[in-house]
Amino acid sequence: MTGPRGRGGLLLRLGFLLLLAGGLLLWSELRRPRDLGLDLDLTGALPGQIVEVDVTVARDGHPLMRFDQKYGPAGAPATLHLTVRAQPGPVEVDVMLIDTGGTARRTRVTVELRKDGNAVVAAR
Fold this sequence. Notes:
The protein is built from one helix and seven strands; from the N terminus they run αβββββββ. The protein is α+β, with helices and mostly antiparallel strands. The chain has two domains: 1-32; 34-122, Immunoglobulin-like (Sandwich). The strands form two sheets. It has a four-stranded antiparallel sheet, with no helix packed on it. Strands 4-1-7 form a three-stranded mixed sheet, with no helix packed on it. The radius of gyration is 24 Å and the shape is rod-shaped. It starts with a helix and ends with a strand.
């Protein structure tokens, strides 16, 4: 026979299980990778000057994304809009630009990826 004490214990267990399930759901949502934006600003170069771009995005030494693109005589666009599938937080961005003369320039910077906006890297 189940008395008031038995029902109270059952309700307490159900409440605990619901709280645990809600906490796990929230934790998994916070840790889920998202599509985050990264803009590479190439406006410091003259039009047609950049013919190849190599971008590597890493976190704690583990690569998250690599973008390697060669452009024709028209050169690279002024801004590259890249998408990184990762959790929000700091990442290391390594940008190698090759100009029409074959000279390579490397830029390394740490930026913060955010859900609410694109991180901007100004390549020099």
